[in-house]
């Protein structure tokens, strides 16, 4: 039983696998474990784990590139996914490593220092780009950070992930039921780490992303407008030697917070920032998600059907 609920056999097996993998990679030196992660990523690619989705996404995003070039991006991406996976169990160790050992370089910290001094908190926004947990946890060393996330369906694995975050010194807020905690945290000048680059279905707004309109959640933009907290984008990019570089971009705020489309405009700006980084380092972004699953015409049809039924 977990939280008063019966744990399914599948979830129990997943949890046991995560625990075993975590114990195994923690027993290895960090750099050696990265090699294990690369091998796991290569294996996932050969087994075809969501490879068709990723291939279609790359073709949509980079039609100007050859099939061979896109295949190379995808192979590099699977290896990066493997590296990120084996870094999860040692998140606390990695953020406390001596300077330069894991995080090779940090650029743009002055933007966060100014936000810290302003006292309105900040929304640390990124996409599924590299080891985003490491980025948030490292920034949490200089100021309190909480990840705002949607819990996994497997409660045991979710609890395991929360333990890794706690060991790294960061908290977790459920996006499902604790939005008030986000507002309270910002009022207390805390930093809220969020992601906003997955398909938002009919609840999102369509903004350009890699050449195609993508349904995108407006939550971060709306919270920023309501609280006055800036959106500060951050990205973590892997070097060839396994270490990472952290980049923090200048803050974004709504140009006219009272405009009816203020949230949509701010959303388009942060999505455009993510696109710049994905085009620069395409292997870093999560291609296995059906980012363009919802089409604009689908939302229109759904709205028309709902109106007709009234």
Write the layout of secondary structure elements.
Blueprint: H1 9-26, H2 30-46, H3 51-61, H4 67-87, H5 91-95, E1 103-107, H6 109-118, E2 122-126, H7 132-139, E3 145-149, H8 155-167, E4 171-174, H9 179-187, E5 191-195, E6 205-209, E7 212-216, H10 219-227, E8 231-238, E9 244-248, H11 262-280, H12 296-308
Parallel strand pairs: 1-9, 2-5, 2-8, 3-4, 3-5
Antiparallel strand pairs: 6-7, 8-9
Helix pairs in contact: 1-8, 2-4, 3-4, 10-11
Question: What features would you highlight for this structure?
Answer:
310 residues; alpha/beta; 7-stranded mixed beta sheet; two-stranded antiparallel sheet; 15% strand; globular; disordered C terminus
* Helix-strand pattern: HHHHHEHEHEHEHEEEHEEHH
User: pLDDT below 50 for ≥5 consecutive residues: which ranges?
Assistant: 300-310
Structural class: alpha/beta
Number of helices: 12
Mean pLDDT: 92
Summarize the main sheet. 7 strands, mixed
User: What proportion of the residues is helical, as a percent range?
Assistant: 40-55%
The shape is globular
Strand order, largest beta sheet: 1-9-8-2-5-3-4
Q: What percent strand? A: 15-25%
Total strands: 9
Distance between the termini: 44 Å
Q: Radius of gyration in whole Å, from Cα?
A: 20 Å
Short note summarizing the structure:
The chain is of the alpha/beta class and 310 residues long. It has helices at residues 9-26, 30-46, 51-61, 67-87, 91-95, 109-118, 132-139, 155-167, 179-187, 219-227, 262-280, 296-308, and strands at 103-107, 122-126, 145-149, 171-174, 191-195, 205-209, 212-216, 231-238, 244-248. The chain has twelve helices and nine strands.
């Amino acid at each position: 039983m977990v939280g008063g609920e019966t744990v399914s056999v599948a979830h129990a097996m997943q949890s046991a696998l995560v625990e075993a993998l975590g114990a195994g990679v923690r027993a290895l030196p960090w750099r050696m474990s990265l090699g294990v992660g690369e091998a796991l990523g290569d294996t996932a690619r050969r087994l075809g784990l969501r490879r068709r989705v990723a291939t279609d996404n790359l073709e949509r995003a980079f039609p100007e590139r050859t099939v061979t070039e896109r295949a190379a991006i995808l192979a590099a991406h699977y290896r990066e996914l493997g590296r990120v996976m084996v870094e999860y169990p040692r998140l606390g160790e990695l953020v406390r490593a001596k300077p330069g050992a894991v995080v090779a370089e940090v650029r743009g910290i002055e933007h966060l220092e100014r936000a810290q001094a302003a006292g309105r908190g900040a929304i640390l926004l990124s996409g599924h780009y590299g080891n985003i947990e490491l980025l948030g946890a490292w920034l949490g060393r200089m100021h309190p950070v909480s990840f705002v996330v949607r819990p996994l369906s497997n409660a045991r694995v979710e609890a395991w992930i929360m333990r890794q975050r706690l060991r790294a010194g960061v908290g977790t807020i459920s996006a499902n039921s604790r939005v008030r905690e986000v507002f309270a945290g910002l009022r207390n000048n805390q930093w809220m780490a969020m992601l906003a680059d997955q398909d938002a279905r009919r609840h999102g707004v369509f903004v350009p992303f890699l050449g195609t309109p993508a349904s995108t959640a407006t939550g971060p933009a709306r919270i920023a407008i309501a609280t006055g907290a800036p959106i500060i984008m951050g990205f973590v990019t892997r070097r060839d030697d396994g270490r990472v570089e952290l980049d923090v971009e200048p803050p974004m705020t709504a140009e006219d917070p009272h405009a009816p489309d203020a949230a949509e405009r701010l959303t388009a700006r942060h999505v455009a920032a993510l696109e710049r980084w994905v085009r620069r380092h395409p292997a870093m972004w999560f291609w296995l998600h059906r980012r363009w699953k919802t089409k604009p015409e689908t939302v229109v049809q759904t709205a028309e059907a709902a109106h007709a039924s009234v």
